[in-house]
Design a protein that fits this description.
2 copies of one chain form a homodimer.
Chain A lengths: L3 E8 L10 H16 L9 E4 L3 H5 L5 H7 L8 E5 L4 H14 L5 E9 L10 H4 L7 H10 L17 H18 L3 H15 L13 H6 L2 E3 L2 E2 L8 E10 H7 L7 E10 L12 H13 L8 E3 L5 H10 L8 H6 L16 H5 L6 H13 L13 E11 L2 E12 L2
Parallel strand pairs in A: 2-3, 2-4, 9-10
Antiparallel strand pairs in A: 1-7, 1-8, 4-7, 5-6, 8-11, 10-11
Helix pairs in contact in A: 4-15, 6-7, 8-12
Chain lengths: 414, 414
């Protein structure tokens, strides 16, 4: 695998940005990434864009990516729009890496952009309902919810619309984890508290209000055991990463010290669930492959950004990524292992929960944070001595599985 | 560039297939491609899917590709959904080629699928209206239509809804070509007549009714100079291609004689229009790059499939691909140069006009035809001695330009 480096990252504020168009958001992220890399846009030889909802919300059903970039002057080069549910932006990066590794060029760009605060309010939730097999929604939801069968749900804690089925699915998974491992609602709240506390230090985060475990528990219930701050919000935003080859670094005369090396880039899809073997889930498999590709293990990681679409998602993922033993995600969270001051900070940015979750931009938002951390430029939320970082970005649901999952491993060059 | 081979192709009937789901169509094309390659689905190491309209028409906004493939057993491997307007399927192939060339694996698959005969009838035209910048539709349409300013449009030949703005844009381009080069409506009708006549020999084509030039001219007008058989129809269908590396060929023990070599695979986007230099359009530029990559020229091509979303599109493209001098596309068509018996058969399949245009599948439908021709398996429409073939697949509109364009060059191995 040819060496690939991230040389520039850009990211807008994540949150409600009703006054900004998709083009505005794209321009903001891309311009920052170009400035960060110190190169002109004409150096970019391919530009892949991730977006999920502009068709639904603004009737831009086709070529939304090329259109947004063309308005900035990009032309001639290969451009396309890619979609992979919540893993959309990472998928754009995955493909841009292959563009370089296949020898097509030496500088490429991946962009993710989403504007969910657009169009009629009731329409925007359809994007979530369109994240799993629309032909099977009822059946698969029933199956998912039956996972937690026999586990008593406190009265008055049913789904609050319009959070819809997605939160039900996560909640069912959480109840399954609670049953199997004794995970408590308080431990899940500890994840949300940690992430909301981190994002107080992130000026680009949607929420910047630290929450205690008690505040998280006392918040309005969504679906048991999830309360509102345990669920990611509706967000607008964009993020971009510019990458290059070893030759590209030289040609552009860039300082390798600021470049971040891509040690692994893995995209996988869910496999048939095996309740007797929890290592057979897509995030575990993708992580194993990524560690192998990088020649590194979980013990080498200094910092992580993982897919906490809900707080319990983070508990699953720290286990899948090997940060703790199976079933220990909850206790470790409550013990502060994954807090900013803990042994392995997870979601220092605030994560999807608190930094925000503009679907098609989320994965590259994670990359932005990790690159910033690895460069030692994360300010008040800097993880000291960060050397290697891991990203996990999942998306969609097929049957009982997460549909897709991207895992990236990145590291300092010096 | 590492050698890449197409080892299996599959394609459904293109046309109205209301009773078949996206999953059915996908399965049909993929199963044929697997059977054609003589391999099991478990050999496929990445599967990229092109689709544009399942969100709009069936509310499957996300992961439509992975969902369709998962229902066939595909799991674990990288999967994603890509969109690039009418060039969607070719873009999936472009990316799958890079997956292999980047060293990620030795066997990959690209699939394109579209079901336009779904959902409410009035809704399906929105996919075309979403093929250019929705913020600029009125302005850019006005500009486009002004290209043919001063050219008298016969009365009673205005746009017939719901063919909408897309046909207006093509018609404006046609009128510009008529003004500049003296191209006649009869010459454009000759293209449609040739393609509709070819598809009589293609059992998978939507229309299999040969039409004379007179019949094309006498058909209901859409927007001058286009009549109905000069415009591609609304279609459902799927097509798939399985590709592999040199190592993959050996590992699978496949006969190289039946494999088709990918000599070039180029994706580009439109550049700012220069009316004084017609070589500065995306198809010409992509073709020039493809010929260079292949080390071949237009004179080496035995057969071509080009993007005839309208008959005048084919006139533009034969010029862009260098099959004749600028301005000679019309006269050459009328002289039969690009007919099945002509010096360089174009769209022997019937093209988009007559084989059909299931947007997200179209590009791989072209590949299916060219692979079949190069293998000498095209039956009654076989181009004798076909050795090298070229594909041109465009999509979308940005400003005055075609938004994206894919050009592929393929050849026999022996």
């Amino acid at each position: 695998m040819e060496n690939i480096y991230i040389i520039g990252v850009g990211m807008t504020f994540f949150g409600r940005q009703k006054e900004k168009s998709i083009k505005d958001l794209t321009r903001e992220a891309v311009q920052e990434a170009l400035q960060d890399a110190g190169i002109e846009y004409k150096e970019i030889q391919c530009a892949y864009v991730g977006n999920t909802a502009q068709g639904l919300l603004e009737d831009q059903y086709c070529i939304s990516g090329p259109i947004a970039l063309r308005s900035m002057g990009f032309e001639g080069i290969p451009m396309l729009t890619v979609e992979n549910a919540c893993a959309t932006a990472s998928t754009a990066l995955y493909l841009a890496i292959h563009f370089l590794q296949s020898g097509q060029g030496d500088v490429a760009m991946a962009v993710g952009v989403e504007k969910l605060n657009a169009g009629p309010k009731d329409k925007r939730f359809a994007i979530f309902d369109g994240c799993w097999d629309v032909y099977l929604t009822e059946e698969s939801t029933k199956k998912l919810l039956s996972m937690a069968e026999g586990f008593e749900v406190p009265p008055g804690t049913q789904t609050t619309e319009p959070y819809s089925v997605f939160m039900d699915i996560y909640a069912a998974g959480a109840r399954w984890h609670m049953q199997k491992y004794g995970t408590t609602q308080r431990q899940i709240a500890a994840v949300a508290s940690s992430n909301h506390t981190n994002s107080k230090l992130n000026p680009r985060a949607q929420y910047q209000i630290p929450l205690t475990i008690e505040q998280v528990l006392a918040a309005p219930p969504i679906t048991y055991p999830l309360t509102m701050p345990m669920c990611s919000p509706i967000s607008d935003g964009a993020a971009a990463a510019i990458i290059c080859t070893e030759d590209g670094l030289k040609r552009l005369g860039l300082d390798k010290k600021r470049a971040i090396k891509v040690h692994a880039s893995v995209l996988g899809t869910g496999i048939t669930r095996d309740d007797n073997d929890e290592t057979k889930n897509i995030a575990s498999l993708a992580a194993a492959k990524a560690y192998e590709m990088a020649g590194l293990g979980p013990e080498d990681m200094s910092v992580a950004e993982v897919h906490d679409a809900t707080a319990c998602g983070q508990i699953f993922q720290v286990e899948n990524l090997g940060f703790c033993a199976r079933g220990m995600g909850g206790p470790c969270a409550e013990a502060g292992d994954f807090s900013l001051a803990g042994r392995l900070p997870v979601n220092p940015s605030g994560g999807l929960l608190s930094k925000g979750h503009p679907i098609g931009a989320t994965g590259l938002g994670q990359v932005w944070e990790l690159v910033t951390q690895l460069r030692g430029e994360a300010g008040a939320r800097q993880v000291e001595g960060a050397r290697f970082a891991i990203q996990e970005n999942g998306g969609g649901v097929i049957g009982l599985e997460e549909a897709v999952c991207y895992v990236g491993v990145y590291g300092k060059c010096d």
